TrEMBL record:
Residues annotated as transmembrane: 12-31, 51-70, 77-95, 127-146, 153-174, 180-199, 220-237
InterPro entries xref list: PAP2/HPO, PAP2/HPO_sf
Protein name: Phosphatidic acid phosphatase type 2/haloperoxidase domain-containing protein
Organism field: Prolixibacter bellariivorans
Extent of the signal sequence: none
């Protein structure tokens, strides 16, 4: 684990700064009021970009995007990233619906919309902990950052992107800072175990399949990813 953290130091740099801010606000203001501090900082011109950026954390959208962008370059990396998203995403949903199912979102906790900044019809009430978008974003980008860990700039960019997408959950009134912090940590740790235990199996399997079969996989996954992307773009709030 220590080596994994060190290998991801450039990716983790912006995340550690973000986590420190979240932890400080949680300690200083408490679980709920720390949300009001962060959510109160908003601008009309930033609302729509934040709404667009938050969809990068959607597990289906994120998986489809990774397939379209990286499938031909490094199929092994994409499959590992998608497996990490699937595993951590399912775990987050299990925690939401079965363990912390009584933890409501800000709009419910603060009993109305007057105290919470939200955008358009993006209104959520239940199943707050942990943040699923923060989980899957951290999981996917951790895997990608680990694969390109010898570079310096791109892992930092991925770390910043993870921070921004995670922050949109607070900005849009969907989650408390503690939800986001827990989601990020769950995603990062989940990515570690995926890389440690599943990546060798996936690499072994795809290393054995023929070129024609690999191309068949790529075409099938490309079509599936395209369908998912189009569906989400047409019906983003369904």
């Amino acid at each position: 684990m220590k080596k994994f953290i060190w290998d991801n130091k450039y990716f983790l740099l912006p995340l550690l700064m973000f986590w420190t801010v979240l932890a400080f606000l949680l300690l200083a203001y408490g679980y709920h009021d720390s949300f009001l501090v962060m959510n109160s900082i908003h601008f009309n011109w930033l609302d729509y970009p934040m709404l667009i950026l938050t969809w990068l954390g959607d597990s289906f959208f994120l998986s489809a995007l990774m397939l379209l962008l990286f499938m031909r370059k490094d199929m092994n990396m994409v499959i590992v990233a998608i497996m990490s998203v699937a595993i951590t995403g399912l775990l987050a949903q299990f925690l939401k619906h079965w363990v912390f199912f009584e933890w409501n979102r800000p709009l419910t906790v603060f009993a109305g919309k007057d105290m919470v900044h939200y955008v358009g019809d993006y209104i959520l009430h239940k199943y707050s902990f942990p943040s699923g978008h923060s989980t899957t974003t951290a999981a996917a980008f951790t895997v990608i950052a680990w694969h390109i860990r010898k570079r310096k700039i791109m892992p930092v960019v991925l770390g910043l992107l993870t921070v921004v997408v995670s922050y949109t959950r607070i900005y849009l009134g969907a989650h408390f800072p503690g939800d986001v912090l827990a989601g990020n940590l769950l995603g990062f740790i989940g990515a570690y175990f995926t890389i440690r235990f599943l990546a060798p199996v996936i690499r072994h399997y795809f290393g054995r399949i023929s070129t024609s079969k690999r191309r068949h996989w790529q075409r099938s996954l490309f079509v599936a990813a395209l369908i998912v992307m189009i569906t989400i773009i047409i019906h983003p709030f369904s």
